[in-house]
Amino acid sequence: MGRLFAVVVTLIALASTAFVVLHTWWLPPDISTHGSRIDRQLNETMIVVGVLFVAAQLGLAYFVWRFSARGAGGPIKTFPGGPKPMVVLATVLVGAEILVLTFVGSKVWAEVYQSPPAPGALQIEVQAEQFAFYFRYAGADKKFGAMHPELMNDATENFFGLDPANDTTARDDIVVGSLVIPANQPVVLQLHAKDVSHSFYVPELRIQQDFVPGMVIPLHFTATTPGKYELVCTQLCGLGHYNMRAFVEVKSPAEFDEWLKRQEPAL
Amino acid sequence: MTHSAATVQSPPQSFLRRHVFSVDHKVIGRQYLDLALVAVVTGMVLSWIMRFHLGWPDTPVPGLGKIAPTGAAGGVITPEYYLALMTMHGTIMVFFVLTTAPFAGFGNFFLPIHIGAEDMAFPRINMTSFWVTLVAFLVLMAAFFVGDGPPLSGWTAYAPLSAVGKDAGPGQGAGQTLWAVSIAIFCVAQLLGSLNFIATTLDLRTRGMSLARLPFATWAWFITSVIALIAFAVLLPACILLILDRVAGTSFFIPAGLVISDRLQEHAGGSPLLWQHLFWFFGHPEVYIAILPGFGIVSQILPVFARKPLLGPRVFVACLIAIAFLSYTVWGHHMFLSGMNPLSATLFSVPTLVITIPAAIITLLWIGTIYGSRLRLTAASLFALGFVSVFVSGGLSGFFLAQPATDIYLHGTYFVVAHFHFVMGVAAMFGIFAATYFWFPKMFGRMMNETLGKWHFWLTFIGVYCVFMPMHYLGLAGNVRRYSAFTDDYLQPLIPLHRFITIAALFTGAVQLIFFFNLVRSRLRGPAAPANPWEATTLEWSTSSPPPHDNFGGHPPVVTHGPDEFGAAGVRDYVMQAEPQ
Predict the structure, then answer these.
(1) Does B523 touch chain A (CB under 8 A)?
(2) How large is the average pLDDT for residues B162-172?
């Protein structure tokens, strides 16, 4: 029985690890400037955690194999050195891991969330609502019109609550349903939530951030590879949550400029 | 430390006072466990429907259309009904199973016996906490039957979705209010229960039962009570504020300028993040409320079947205390991407990683306890060993989520689902199973069938790994959670893996029938249990199976030994706690 337990635990540990080592299911290719560091952090964590996982499971399996077969014979033995080696092992091993991961990891985090966006980054306003994302570009005047909640209306397609009749800066604002950005140029998004919380998640961009009603949250990144990617909502927002998505289109700078010129003002 | 419950109670005569409105902690413990059993079956059936839908979104579930004509017309569930099932599954499992069974259920039955007491310190309050818990459960179940359906904002009920009412869509009407009322009532029951556990442990220990001689399960229940007392004391007002936002027009969690369904909301001044802070200040300690009793149960059971004292008993207790303390410093790791100050992410990350040190030490103590032992493998000890395995698996994946940098990618994906199901769901369930096989003879005076118990273990152990390990892979591939269907193109290639998980989940669920059959059959026909079938040492094994009404027949035991004195040379390899010197 003990041997069966050992074999089952060993097989589970090895099979679980194999799929990770083989990358059978793995992250999609990274298309951002910061993503490679997140991936490295994830890989390093995976190695450390993988070693601890296999060691703990195999240790458990071995001890159960070895000591379940003894029956009533022989006296019991205390673990050499008592609990002290266990305390030291766990504290040193896990402690060192924590220090390293925190030291390296907090830099990666700070780069994405605590550093200001590059000067001259492309400004885009994002409105999240049940169950769609809308994106606003400032237009020729490079100024965004003010947002008025009382004017927000899906029926009239005034997703940002613009008031072009009285607000000159709002007249040339461009509003689209896809996030179109130039490759290799820093972008800063200002995230607004119209109704409930939502989240901005693009796996390829290695970025995720909640939209919170009542807050405007900046998020900056630089995409590197032209293509069409999916942006999905990861914060439960109601019945259509599963279907709340948009596309991120990364274009070459020239194509992006041309695309922007073709856009008509929203209202 | 002497016994202060002065009167020796004789059992009440009427059926109602004996079996229904009983103040006997043993009856109340069983009532909690019965409630948890009803809850776990409900929660599991909901998860089957969800899993089936994820694997085969367009295939009708036979008969479901009749049970839920609006949510599943023709047997195929709607997106909102999926979220409602998910919300109810999470709420039922976390509150009414993982809190109720290992803590309130087994704790009620065994804590007083472990310390040599006749009952809890406040028997009437004890009875009240069970009945209040039952009311909370019924209020939650009522949400299934209200007009616009059960709530769908998840067990975390994030505001403003949970706070703004009907405008936010189906499930946000009466169902969500019932959810908040149910959880508020549940908090009251837990506060009463944990006060009772604390008072009982501190005041009713029999002669000689010093803290150093306290059995490990009772240590864990005691520390869990302290955590619960603080955690539920925060969730209760949070739920009251949420109810006020919903029914009284206040704006604790709702900011100004929200436009929902093209209607400008008449709220102003609240903060959605306030709800998240209050909820997770409860929510993370809740994880330890669910799992610490399991720690205690495993630490109690392993020495019995290893025939060897627990390695480092004082270290174990110190680690429990460290975990209890640290559990209040980590809640922000649920909120790295919530829009709170990103600097605080690092501050919450460090204690989150540090709390793995006491958890790792405890795991190594268990493995070190097996070293040099004469391990006996029974259904109880197999589930205790299985607990160690699944706890390691679930605990380690926490390393990815505790770091803000890697959480950026994995937050909101199935990786999180895999992590918390392993570490607080499956591990806690294994603790419950181990406790059931271990204590059933004492509770009911009959033995359970070991062969069925072992089959139950093997199939469940392999099954849960097949269900939850692949969810890590889904998360790594970027599969977001809480989706009722995967319309996104990049998720299509993951459907076969979802189907595998669904089949494994249905299989593992079906295996639980072995457990239920064993429970019912053993209860009716199991062979009579001796007083101490496992050759264990703690006080419950010194009294008859089942124990008499006042636990020790009017003779409170005098404790002279530690809780796990195994390995003695001689005819018997163990010394009972109440054995004369």
Answers:
(1) no
(2) 88
Q: Which of A94, A113, A155 sits opposite B262 (nearest CB)?
A: A155
d(CA B44, CA B509): 7
Contact A232 B480 (CB under 8 A): yes
SS3 per-residue string spanning B266-294? CCCCCCHHHHHHHHHHHHHHHHHHHHHHH
- Alpha helical stretches, state H, B12-146: 15, 25-55, 64-67, 79-91, 106-114, 123-142
Q: Give the integer Cα–Cα distance in Å for B402 and B400.
A: 6
With an 8 Å Cβ cutoff, are A52 and B396 in contact?
yes
Q: How far apart are CA A87 and CA B368, in angstroms?
A: 11
- For chain A, the distance separating the N- and C-terminal CA atoms, rounded to the nearest angstrom, is 74
Helix (H, G, I), strand (E, B) or coil at B336: coil
- Residue B533: asked if its preceding bond is cis (omega within 30°), the reply is no
Scored b (16 or more CB within 10 A) or e, B30-54 reads: bbbbebbbebbebbbebbbbbbbbb
> Would you say residue A267 lies in a domain?
no
Average pLDDT taken over every residue of chain A: 95
B78 touching chain A per CB within 8 A: yes
Interface contact A212-B411, CB threshold 8 A: no
Q: CA-to-CA distance for B239 and B234, rounded, in angstroms?
A: 9
**Residues within 8 A of A (CB atoms), B 438-477 only:** 454, 458, 461-462, 465, 469-470, 473-474, 476-477
Residue A202, domain member (yes or no): yes
Q: What are the chain A neighbours of B153 within 8 Å (beta carbons)? A: 236
Domain that holds residue A202: 122-262
Q: What is the pLDDT of residues B359-373, one digit of tens each?
A: 999 999 999 999 999
Do B405 and A109 form a contact (C-beta atoms < 8 A)?
Answer: yes
Enumerate residues 245 to 264 of chain B having a beta carbon within 8 A of any beta carbon in chain A.
254-262, 264
Taking the C-alpha atoms of A257, A263, A264 and A266 in order, what is their torsion angle to the nearest 10 degrees?
Answer: -110
Residue range B52-73: average pLDDT? 91
Give the CATH number of the domain where residue B100 resides. 1.20.210.10
Spatial contact of B297 and B305, defined as CB atoms under 8 Å apart: no
CB pair distance less than 8 Å for A98 and B375: no
- CATH number of the structural domain spanning residue A254: 2.60.40.420
Do A159 and A229 lie in one domain? The reply is: yes
Per-residue DSSP letter, A69: T
**A89 and A10 belong to one structural domain:** yes
In a shared domain, residues A62 and A87: yes
CA distance A47 to chain B (A): 11
Highest mean pLDDT among A182-196, B9-23, B60-74: A182-196
- Give chain B's end-to-end CA distance (angstroms, integer): 19
Task: Tell me the whole-structure pTM to 2 decimals.
Answer: 0.96
- Which range marks the domain in which residue B113 is found? 22-575
Q: Are residues A33 and A127 in the same domain?
A: no
Which positions in chain B touch A210 (Cβ < 8 Å)?
337-339
* Alpha-carbon span B442 to B298, nearest angstrom: 17
Whether B95 is covered by a domain: the verdict is yes
Report d(CA B451, CA B200) in Å as an integer: 37
Please check whether residue A198 touches B, CB under 8 A.
no
How does pLDDT run across B335-354, given as a tens digit for each residue?
999 999 999 999 999 999 99
Question: Taking CB atoms and an 8 Å limit, are A109 and B405 in contact across chains?
Answer: yes
Set of chain A residues whose Cβ sits within 8 Å of the Cβ of B461: 8
Best residue in B172, B280, B323, B364 to probe A by mutation, most A CBs within 10 Å? B364
A45 touches chain B (CB under 8 A): yes
- Phi/psi at A174 (5° precision): -105, 130
Domains contained in chain A, number:
2
If asked whether residues A92 and A129 sit together in one domain, one would say no
Give chain B's domain count. Answer: 1
Residues A94 and A133 in one domain: no
